[in-house]
Amino acid sequence: MDRRTALERIGLMMGGALSASTIAGVLGGCSAGPEDVPFVARTLTGDRLEQVATIAEHIIPRTDTPGARAARVHEYIDNMLTDFYKPEESRRFLAGLDALEARSLKSYAVPFLDLDPSAQIALMRMMEEEAVPFFFTAKSLTLTGYYTSEIGATQELHIAPFGTYQADIPFSQVGRTWA
Fold it and tell me: What letter would DSSP give residue 131?
């Protein structure tokens, strides 16, 4: 599957709404980078890279296929924020992480990363229900990073083996989502 097809499908999953910066990043070939080179965060410094990795893993957890952390989505997001997002967009994303941290401290009196996973998910659900722009951006970047990664494109999605179109194929026969 090429990047344009992946982008089209991610756009459909997100309801057709992807930012121009996200589209530019995907078409520009943004990725987590080579596995044999140690990753150095440029925008998500300190605990922020781990916060993003935790958020992404809650959005796409490991099941019978690897999750967002294994696909190195947090590295992809750092590269997107650094190389493709405008400075004000990156600042808004970082402010969203700060707001999440502030909510965690206010609600639970501990940092987000120290919460148990169920409390982390509860905070994320509150942000989603309140339509917090940061959460939409984090979710969009997570989905884009995952489904354009090798893991997402080859282990989660599958190339349709059906050939010509066949209507009404029982889901039990095909299993996962097909690309």
Answer: T
| DSSP result, 38-105 | ----SSSTTTHHHHHHHHHHHHS--SSS--TTTTTHHHHHHHHHHHTS-HHHHHHHHHHHHHHHHHHH
β-bridge partners, 178: 158
Question: Do 82 and 43 touch, CB atoms closer than 8 A?
Answer: yes
Residue 168 burial by Cβ neighbours in a 10 Å radius (0-12, 13-18, 19+): exposed
Largest CA distance in the chain: 57
Which residues in the chain land under pLDDT 50? Answer: 7, 14-16
pLDDT at 161: 59
Model-wide pTM > 0.70: yes
Do the Cβ atoms of 148 and 26 come closer than 8 Å? yes
Residue with tokens 């952390």: 69
The DSSP output letter for 152 is: I
